[in-house]
Specification:
alpha+beta; 4-stranded antiparallel β-sheet; 13 helices; two-stranded antiparallel ribbon; about 325 residues
């Protein structure tokens, strides 16, 4: 057994080369912290480095600090995302929206997704400078291996993150291909690169979970141990519904992620961000540590919901408290 203190007890000061790459623009300002009005989000991590304020630091992380194992999965992810989609078929079956929804969900699950949620795209989810000229977003969840995630921050956890992002990309491209083969246009996207639409609020509205205090989602089956991908489409579909199960109430009292964050980036209360009161992680405190510690992930790795088999039991307990 190691006698080393846990990561959250080790004092942290960013390297000078990291500090030198920080832009004048504050990440919290870019994200809209403290803004009273609803607006579209501004591109930030992990959009194209050429269009974001933190682009040089993003490239520094990818070039110098990402582990070799993680780079392998990232390269596979990038290669898969370059594959051309099949041509749009002119042969479109005459199915009802309910039938399209059932078949699309089945296709997604057969194509490596673990869960599927569907909702209409909202303008406030679309990043500034991007377009999403589709009615629907189909959000895909892919589970992570908790035994890997709980080691964060480590090369093991970073490799698992990149591995599951690659799986999410494959699932999104396979679903989009199926849609196009059945006559409907579709645009796939998988992380970790950012796309045209914020996936977390879409996933919440599509019934895949709630926002946790750590700024990531909590799912009633996987806890915080999962990643997202999506497909935008005009295929006639039926929406899923926001399905709270008590994670938000749990986070009000739980202090695990606030305690383990080495840079105190996680606050015990919600904050106003682009017109909405929500859980928010201090970007400017978090990101230098994230860059220097293999992507971090301490907060979701230590989240009580992430432990194998715990989330379903917690969700049932919290749902009964809500009276749902």
């Amino acid at each position: 057994m190691s006698d080393s203190p846990p990561p959250w007890e080790i004092p942290f000061s960013p390297r000078q080369e990291v500090l030198d790459l920080l832009p004048e623009a504050q990440g919290n300002d870019i994200n809209g912290l403290g803004e009273a009005d609803v607006r579209r989000p501004t591109p930030i991590m992990w959009h194209d480095s050429e269009i974001i304020a933190h682009g040089e630091l993003q490239e520094y992380f990818r070039r110098s600090l990402m582990s070799e194992g993680a780079k392998v999965h990232r390269r596979d992810n990038l290669e898969f995302s370059k594959k051309p989609l099949p041509p749009l078929s002119s042969d479109r079956p005459d199915w009802t929206a309910a039938e399209w929804t059932r078949r699309a969900r089945d296709a997604a699950l057969a194509g490596e997704a673990d869960q599927v949620g569907i909702t209409r795209i909202r303008p406030e989810w679309v990043f500034e400078g991007f377009e999403a000229d589709f009615e629907w977003i189909v959000v895909l969840a892919v589970a992570m291996d908790y035994e890997c995630l709980k080691t964060a921050p480590s090369e093991t956890s970073q490799v698992e993150v990149q591995k599951q992002y690659a799986r999410g990309t494959r699932a999104a491209y396979r679903l989009a291909s199926w849609m196009r083969e059945h006559g409907w246009d579709a645009f796939p996207h998988g992380g970790p690169a950012a796309g045209p639409v914020l996936m977390i609020p879409a996933a919440i509205e599509a019934g895949l979970g709630e926002l946790g205090k750590h700024g990531s989602m909590i799912n009633r089956e996987f806890g915080s141990s999962f990643r997202l991908a999506c497909v935008l489409t005009d295929m006639p579909l039926e929406p899923d519904a926001f399905a709270p199960f008590g994670a938000d109430d749990f986070c009000l009292n739980c202090q695990v992620c606030t305690r383990v964050c080495p840079v105190d980036a996680i606050r015990p209360e919600k904050r106003r961000v682009r017109g909405e009161d929500k859980w928010y992680v201090d970007f400017d405190a978090c990101f230098p540590y994230f860059v220097e510690h293999t992507g971090c992930g301490l907060c979701i790795g230590q989240c009580p919901w992430s432990r194998t088999g715990i989330a379903p039991r917690l969700a049932d307990k919290m749902t009964k408290r809500l009276g749902n």
